[in-house]
Amino acid sequence: MKRFFLIILFFLGFLNSFVAQKKAYDSTYYTKYKDRLIISIYQSYRNYSMDVAQKLTKDTLGTSKIGYVAEANLISGFEINYDKFNISVGYKSSPPKDQLKKGDTKYKNFALNIGGNRWIIENSYRSYQGFYNKNTVNYDTTFRRTGVYDQNPTLRSEAYKTKFLFFTNSNKFSFKSGYSCSYRQLRSAFSFVLSANIYYNRLNADSSFIPYPIRTYYDNHQSINGLNVFAFSVYGGGSFNLVLWKAFFMNLTLIIGPEQQWRTYRYLSNYPTQDLFYSSISGDFRGSMGLNFKKFFVLVSGTSDFSWYNGNSMEYLSKYGSINFSLGYRFRMKPGKLYRKFQESKVYKRF
Q: What are the respective helix, strand and coil percentages of the chain, to the nearest 5?
């Protein structure tokens, strides 16, 4: 715990040294769009899964391993950008073709991002309800005949997340040019990335997480039906924009770091609720490519993040991934009088 707080202090000191060295951006490297309303629509393929494993009973065949998957893959949505503000809303666009075999997942997603080219605060909410176990074949002898997966329709995962991203080379590098396209990178550039992440993840169900045929492997934990996690992490990494012909671009971003987790395990039986503290790791990996012209842009982007909840008796690995296809256009929209005053304020200039 002390070591983690030392990391935080080092992070804040390192960040403060860069904040004090703000430089004017180099217009030969990227273009700003402060007076454009940017509207885009997207189609997204998303995957959310939770791997659960026990450490109590010897299981050489892996029969007790659980691989929960949310069947909410195709998502449609829209995104609106203006200056340093971004809002995105997504919804499930079509039911699964094999709903009888895998069940149905109720899905919600909302994101609100604030910040400019120097730093960004990303706020998001994700909710999935209804999962199937991809490892059903390990314990269900009828699966090869029926193809029906073990399902838990009441299992729900909710995540509230806030992520802070700081870019050390903001005078030449534009992260947003590869994702929201509120900037346009003209020349290739690299930046180190400093990040802090705070989130609350709630996992609960009306019944146990553990499928009935394999509950004995989990001993006293076989009736678990709730896991709440509050976590804070500090990341470090880098991001690179490759630009060709001032229009075609590719971005790759990798950040990873230590995470401190405060967990609460809840059970249906008389087994007591457990409040535990753990140190772990988590990471964020992103990539994008596309064409970014003066008014029109098209891009394909991918995001992946994970959280690892390791313990003495059980472990959970939460994984999220998405691939997005977006089409967007920049409409000229001059800021109003009040917004112009805001743009001239000290608060705005710190963005």
A: 15, 55, 30
Q: Which amino acid is at 240?
A: F
Count of alpha carbons within 13 angstroms of residue 188, beta-carbon side: 9
The secondary element (H helix, E strand) that includes residue 234 is: strand 224-244
pLDDT digits (tens, 9 = 90+) for 116-142: 788 889 898 888 888 999 899 888 888
Examine the pLDDT at 20 and tell me if it is beyond 50: no
Cα dist from 132 to 153, 185, 305, whole Å: 8, 42, 21
Domain 39-349's class? mainly beta
Q: Where in the chain are the domains?
A: 39-349
- The answer to whether the beta carbons of residues 201 and 147 sit under 8 Å apart is no
Pair of tokens at residue 323: 């691939």
Count CB-CB contacts under 10 A for residue 265.
Answer: 21
DSSP 153-197: EEEEEEEEEEEEEEETTTTT--SGGGTT-SEEE-S-EEEEEEEEE
What pLDDT, on a 0 to 100 scale, did the predictor assign at position 190? 93
